[in-house]
Amino acid sequence: MSSNNPRLILGSSSKYRQELLSRLHLPFTVASPNIDEAPLIGETPPETALRLSIEKARAIAQLHPDAVIIGADQVATVNGVQLGKAGNHANALKQLQMMRGQTVLFHSALCVFDARTGQHEARNVITKATMRNLPDEQLSAYLHIEQPYDCAGSAKVEALGITLLEKVESDDPTALIGLPLIALTDMLRAIGITFYSTQA
């Protein structure tokens, strides 16, 4: 890895995104942006996800003008209805009831913001997740075990939530967890970040 890489900051408090980014063997720090994540009136789910990923990255870039910031956001939708973070058991059960037997679209937006130049790139990676048609008692039992109340759609595919899924379709296998690494490595390379030395 080149020592000439700029300082890298992940704009997310998600331990799952942190674990994913660590797979790239790039040194990074973490900062949590303090922004309003509510969707705007008339905003589509992909527009919400992209806007929030950019706003998160930009907020941190203002505090760290020498760094490259990664912002990320995820929005889930089923039959056109946007699903946010449930927050509690009752809301999470309602979400899973709405999702069962359906195909859920997860919009995993990503922004790489180069605070040194002010330039940024943002992408939305869509994942189609078909949910199993499970009865209420199994959905409730899952929620008591996992308590995934802080994630969109109340299902954590990186843990027991995988049991709720029948099929997943995506061009980027880590997008559903919240950080599309294929897209991210492409975007980081575009601003000159290297991942490994080519020297023998």
Automatic annotation (TrEMBL):
Endpoints of the signal sequence: none
One function term, GO molecular function aspect: nucleoside triphosphate diphosphatase activity
Site (Important for substrate specificity): 16, 74, 158
Catalytic reactions of this protein: N(7)-methyl-GTP + H2O = N(7)-methyl-GMP + diphosphate + H(+)
Keywords: Cytoplasm, Hydrolase, Nucleotide metabolism
Cofactor(s) needed: a divalent metal cation
Pfam families the UniProt entry points to: Maf (PF02545)
Classification via SUPFAM superfamilies: ITPase-like
Gene3D superfamilies in alphabetical order: 3.90.950.10
Broad class of enzyme this protein falls into: hydrolase
Enzyme Commission number, as recorded: 3.6.1.-
Single Gene Ontology BP annotation: nucleotide metabolic process
Membrane-spanning intervals of the chain: none
Active site: 73
UniProt-annotated location(s): Cytoplasm
One GO CC term on file: cytoplasm
Coiled-coil positions: none
Major subcellular site: cytoplasm
Family: Belongs to the Maf family. YceF subfamily.
Function: Nucleoside triphosphate pyrophosphatase that hydrolyzes 7-methyl-GTP (m(7)GTP). May have a dual role in cell division arrest and in preventing the incorporation of modified nucleotides into cellular nucleic acids.
Protein name: 7-methyl-GTP pyrophosphatase
